[in-house]
Amino acid sequence: MISSARRIAGRPLGHTFGTMSQSSPQQGRPSPRHPEDRRRDLHADPVPVPDPAVPADGPARADAVRASDAEREAVVERLRVASVEGRLTFEELTERTEAAYAAVTRGDLEHITRDLPGMGAPGANPAPQLVRRRFSAVMGDCKERIVGRIDESLEAVSVMGDVELDLRGAQVPTGEVTVHATAVMGDVKIIVPDGVTVDLGGRAFMGDRRVAVREPRPGARVPVVHVIAHAIMGDVQIVDDEHLAPVRRAIASWWRDRNP
User: Fold this and answer.
1) In the chain, domain spans
2) Taking the model in full, what pTM does it have?
Protein backbone atom coordinates (compact mmCIF):
# COMPACT_ATOMS: atom_id res chain seq x y z
CA MET A 1 0.00 0.00 0.00
CA ILE A 2 2.83 2.39 0.92
CA SER A 3 4.82 1.49 -2.23
CA SER A 4 1.75 2.11 -4.41
CA ALA A 5 1.28 5.53 -2.86
CA ARG A 6 4.93 6.31 -3.52
CA ARG A 7 4.57 5.32 -7.19
CA ILE A 8 1.55 7.56 -7.55
CA ALA A 9 3.31 10.45 -5.84
CA GLY A 10 6.26 10.11 -8.26
CA ARG A 11 4.09 10.58 -11.36
CA PRO A 12 2.90 13.90 -12.76
CA LEU A 13 -0.46 14.83 -11.50
CA GLY A 14 -1.95 15.02 -15.02
CA HIS A 15 -1.10 11.37 -15.73
CA THR A 16 -2.82 10.25 -12.57
CA PHE A 17 -6.19 11.92 -12.85
CA GLY A 18 -7.48 12.36 -16.41
CA THR A 19 -10.14 14.82 -15.35
CA MET A 20 -7.49 17.34 -14.34
CA SER A 21 -5.52 17.26 -17.64
CA GLN A 22 -7.71 20.00 -19.16
CA SER A 23 -7.80 23.44 -17.60
CA SER A 24 -11.22 24.75 -16.65
CA PRO A 25 -12.35 28.14 -18.01
CA GLN A 26 -10.92 31.03 -16.07
CA GLN A 27 -13.27 33.47 -14.49
CA GLY A 28 -13.79 36.59 -16.59
CA ARG A 29 -12.59 35.01 -19.92
CA PRO A 30 -15.23 33.92 -22.48
CA SER A 31 -15.24 30.26 -23.32
CA PRO A 32 -14.35 29.26 -26.92
CA ARG A 33 -17.33 29.42 -29.27
CA HIS A 34 -18.50 26.77 -31.65
CA PRO A 35 -17.71 27.35 -35.38
CA GLU A 36 -21.42 27.26 -36.16
CA ASP A 37 -21.97 30.16 -33.79
CA ARG A 38 -19.18 32.19 -35.42
CA ARG A 39 -20.53 31.59 -38.93
CA ARG A 40 -24.00 32.60 -37.74
CA ASP A 41 -22.59 35.87 -36.38
CA LEU A 42 -20.83 36.68 -39.69
CA HIS A 43 -24.08 36.40 -41.64
CA ALA A 44 -26.24 38.15 -39.08
CA ASP A 45 -27.73 41.51 -39.93
CA PRO A 46 -25.42 44.37 -38.89
CA VAL A 47 -26.45 46.62 -36.06
CA PRO A 48 -27.93 49.77 -37.60
CA VAL A 49 -25.76 52.88 -37.14
CA PRO A 50 -27.68 56.13 -36.72
CA ASP A 51 -27.06 58.81 -39.35
CA PRO A 52 -25.08 61.66 -37.75
CA ALA A 53 -26.77 64.13 -40.12
CA VAL A 54 -30.12 63.39 -38.51
CA PRO A 55 -29.81 63.28 -34.72
CA ALA A 56 -32.39 61.16 -32.98
CA ASP A 57 -33.22 63.87 -30.47
CA GLY A 58 -33.09 66.97 -32.66
CA PRO A 59 -33.58 68.47 -36.15
CA ALA A 60 -31.26 67.74 -39.06
CA ARG A 61 -28.25 69.91 -39.81
CA ALA A 62 -28.83 72.85 -42.13
CA ASP A 63 -26.74 71.33 -44.94
CA ALA A 64 -28.66 68.03 -44.67
CA VAL A 65 -32.08 69.61 -45.24
CA ARG A 66 -33.71 68.62 -48.51
CA ALA A 67 -33.42 71.21 -51.28
CA SER A 68 -36.51 72.59 -53.01
CA ASP A 69 -37.05 73.20 -56.73
CA ALA A 70 -36.94 76.96 -56.10
CA GLU A 71 -33.52 76.63 -54.43
CA ARG A 72 -32.21 74.60 -57.36
CA GLU A 73 -33.44 77.20 -59.85
CA ALA A 74 -31.81 79.95 -57.78
CA VAL A 75 -28.46 78.15 -57.98
CA VAL A 76 -28.86 77.70 -61.75
CA GLU A 77 -29.46 81.44 -62.11
CA ARG A 78 -26.41 82.14 -59.99
CA LEU A 79 -24.36 79.91 -62.29
CA ARG A 80 -25.66 81.77 -65.34
CA VAL A 81 -24.61 85.10 -63.82
CA ALA A 82 -21.17 83.66 -63.07
CA SER A 83 -20.89 82.58 -66.72
CA VAL A 84 -21.80 86.10 -67.90
CA GLU A 85 -19.06 87.50 -65.67
CA GLY A 86 -16.54 85.10 -67.17
CA ARG A 87 -16.13 82.96 -64.05
CA LEU A 88 -17.34 79.73 -65.68
CA THR A 89 -16.66 78.22 -69.08
CA PHE A 90 -19.39 76.62 -71.18
CA GLU A 91 -18.29 73.20 -69.94
CA GLU A 92 -18.27 74.26 -66.28
CA LEU A 93 -21.65 75.95 -66.64
CA THR A 94 -23.16 72.78 -68.09
CA GLU A 95 -21.61 70.46 -65.51
CA ARG A 96 -22.69 72.57 -62.55
CA THR A 97 -26.16 73.16 -63.93
CA GLU A 98 -26.65 69.42 -64.29
CA ALA A 99 -25.33 68.90 -60.76
CA ALA A 100 -27.69 71.57 -59.40
CA TYR A 101 -30.75 69.82 -60.81
CA ALA A 102 -29.49 66.51 -59.39
CA ALA A 103 -28.80 67.97 -55.93
CA VAL A 104 -30.73 66.42 -53.04
CA THR A 105 -29.76 68.58 -50.06
CA ARG A 106 -28.85 72.19 -49.44
CA GLY A 107 -25.33 71.02 -48.72
CA ASP A 108 -25.10 69.67 -52.27
CA LEU A 109 -26.11 73.08 -53.65
CA GLU A 110 -23.62 74.90 -51.43
CA HIS A 111 -20.87 72.59 -52.70
CA ILE A 112 -21.65 73.58 -56.32
CA THR A 113 -21.27 77.32 -55.65
CA ARG A 114 -18.59 77.18 -52.96
CA ASP A 115 -15.99 79.00 -55.13
CA LEU A 116 -18.37 81.66 -56.50
CA PRO A 117 -19.14 85.04 -54.94
CA GLY A 118 -22.57 85.76 -53.54
CA MET A 119 -25.30 87.35 -55.62
CA GLY A 120 -24.76 90.70 -53.85
CA ALA A 121 -21.02 90.84 -54.62
CA PRO A 122 -19.70 93.46 -57.07
CA GLY A 123 -19.96 92.21 -60.63
CA ALA A 124 -16.85 91.36 -62.64
CA ASN A 125 -16.07 92.53 -66.15
CA PRO A 126 -17.46 90.27 -68.88
CA ALA A 127 -15.12 87.82 -70.57
CA PRO A 128 -13.41 89.13 -73.75
CA GLN A 129 -15.59 88.78 -76.82
CA LEU A 130 -14.71 86.23 -79.47
CA VAL A 131 -13.48 88.13 -82.53
CA ARG A 132 -13.27 85.35 -85.09
CA ARG A 133 -16.62 83.76 -85.88
CA ARG A 134 -16.00 82.02 -89.25
CA PHE A 135 -13.89 78.88 -89.52
CA SER A 136 -13.26 77.18 -92.86
CA ALA A 137 -11.10 74.52 -94.48
CA VAL A 138 -10.72 73.97 -98.24
CA MET A 139 -8.83 70.78 -98.99
CA GLY A 140 -7.21 71.11 -95.58
CA ASP A 141 -7.79 71.00 -91.82
CA CYS A 142 -8.99 73.55 -89.28
CA LYS A 143 -9.07 72.76 -85.56
CA GLU A 144 -10.12 75.46 -83.12
CA ARG A 145 -10.72 75.44 -79.38
CA ILE A 146 -13.01 78.41 -78.82
CA VAL A 147 -11.92 80.66 -75.94
CA GLY A 148 -13.78 83.88 -75.26
CA ARG A 149 -17.33 85.19 -75.02
CA ILE A 150 -19.77 84.05 -77.70
CA ASP A 151 -22.46 86.66 -78.32
CA GLU A 152 -23.29 85.83 -81.95
CA SER A 153 -23.60 82.73 -84.09
CA LEU A 154 -20.58 80.83 -85.43
CA GLU A 155 -19.99 79.47 -88.93
CA ALA A 156 -18.02 76.39 -89.95
CA VAL A 157 -17.45 75.55 -93.63
CA SER A 158 -15.60 72.51 -94.94
CA VAL A 159 -14.94 71.87 -98.64
CA MET A 160 -13.05 68.62 -99.14
CA GLY A 161 -11.47 69.20 -95.75
CA ASP A 162 -12.03 68.86 -92.00
CA VAL A 163 -13.21 71.48 -89.51
CA GLU A 164 -13.32 70.83 -85.77
CA LEU A 165 -14.76 73.33 -83.30
CA ASP A 166 -14.39 72.74 -79.55
CA LEU A 167 -16.92 74.82 -77.59
CA ARG A 168 -16.12 73.49 -74.11
CA GLY A 169 -13.82 76.35 -73.12
CA ALA A 170 -16.01 79.19 -74.40
CA GLN A 171 -17.94 81.73 -72.34
CA VAL A 172 -21.65 81.64 -73.17
CA PRO A 173 -23.55 84.38 -71.26
CA THR A 174 -26.97 83.45 -72.66
CA GLY A 175 -26.50 79.71 -72.24
CA GLU A 176 -27.22 79.17 -75.94
CA VAL A 177 -24.92 78.88 -78.96
CA THR A 178 -25.84 78.76 -82.64
CA VAL A 179 -23.51 77.19 -85.21
CA HIS A 180 -24.08 77.18 -88.98
CA ALA A 181 -22.18 74.17 -90.35
CA THR A 182 -21.72 73.34 -94.02
CA ALA A 183 -19.83 70.27 -95.24
CA VAL A 184 -19.24 69.75 -98.99
CA MET A 185 -17.37 66.49 -99.55
CA GLY A 186 -15.79 67.14 -96.15
CA ASP A 187 -16.36 66.81 -92.41
CA VAL A 188 -17.42 69.22 -89.67
CA LYS A 189 -17.16 68.12 -86.04
CA ILE A 190 -18.54 70.22 -83.17
CA ILE A 191 -17.50 69.25 -79.63
CA VAL A 192 -19.88 70.30 -76.85
CA PRO A 193 -19.84 69.75 -73.07
CA ASP A 194 -21.56 66.75 -71.50
CA GLY A 195 -25.18 67.37 -70.58
CA VAL A 196 -26.14 70.08 -73.10
CA THR A 197 -29.22 69.96 -75.29
CA VAL A 198 -28.49 69.85 -79.03
CA ASP A 199 -31.07 71.27 -81.44
CA LEU A 200 -30.19 70.02 -84.93
CA GLY A 201 -31.62 71.44 -88.15
CA GLY A 202 -30.67 71.68 -91.80
CA ARG A 203 -30.52 69.17 -94.64
CA ALA A 204 -28.29 66.42 -95.98
CA PHE A 205 -27.82 65.42 -99.64
CA MET A 206 -25.83 62.23 -100.02
CA GLY A 207 -24.32 63.13 -96.67
CA ASP A 208 -24.91 62.57 -92.99
CA ARG A 209 -25.80 64.59 -89.89
CA ARG A 210 -25.22 62.89 -86.55
CA VAL A 211 -25.64 63.77 -82.89
CA ALA A 212 -23.81 61.71 -80.26
CA VAL A 213 -24.46 63.34 -76.89
CA ARG A 214 -25.80 62.19 -73.55
CA GLU A 215 -29.41 63.14 -72.94
CA PRO A 216 -29.86 65.73 -70.16
CA ARG A 217 -32.22 65.24 -67.25
CA PRO A 218 -35.88 65.65 -68.28
CA GLY A 219 -37.18 69.13 -67.46
CA ALA A 220 -33.73 70.54 -66.65
CA ARG A 221 -33.00 74.04 -67.98
CA VAL A 222 -29.54 73.24 -69.34
CA PRO A 223 -27.48 75.12 -71.97
CA VAL A 224 -28.52 74.62 -75.60
CA VAL A 225 -26.45 74.30 -78.79
CA HIS A 226 -28.36 75.05 -82.00
CA VAL A 227 -26.75 73.58 -85.12
CA ILE A 228 -28.01 74.33 -88.62
CA ALA A 229 -26.18 71.66 -90.60
CA HIS A 230 -26.05 71.27 -94.37
CA ALA A 231 -24.16 68.20 -95.59
CA ILE A 232 -23.56 67.66 -99.32
CA MET A 233 -21.66 64.43 -99.78
CA GLY A 234 -20.13 65.19 -96.41
CA ASP A 235 -20.66 64.71 -92.69
CA VAL A 236 -21.63 67.02 -89.83
CA GLN A 237 -21.23 65.52 -86.38
CA ILE A 238 -21.97 66.91 -82.92
CA VAL A 239 -20.34 65.01 -80.06
CA ASP A 240 -19.91 65.60 -76.34
CA ASP A 241 -16.86 64.84 -74.25
CA GLU A 242 -18.23 61.43 -73.31
CA HIS A 243 -18.45 60.27 -76.94
CA LEU A 244 -15.36 62.10 -78.20
CA ALA A 245 -12.78 59.73 -76.73
CA PRO A 246 -14.48 56.91 -74.78
CA VAL A 247 -11.30 54.84 -74.50
CA ARG A 248 -9.31 57.76 -73.12
CA ARG A 249 -12.06 58.58 -70.63
CA ALA A 250 -12.26 54.94 -69.50
CA ILE A 251 -8.49 54.83 -68.90
CA ALA A 252 -8.56 58.15 -67.04
CA SER A 253 -11.45 56.97 -64.87
CA TRP A 254 -9.64 53.71 -64.11
CA TRP A 255 -6.50 55.62 -63.17
CA ARG A 256 -8.41 57.98 -60.85
CA ASP A 257 -10.08 55.02 -59.10
CA ARG A 258 -6.72 53.28 -58.77
CA ASN A 259 -5.00 56.37 -57.36
CA PRO A 260 -7.55 58.19 -55.20
Assistant:
1) 63-112, 134-248
2) 0.63
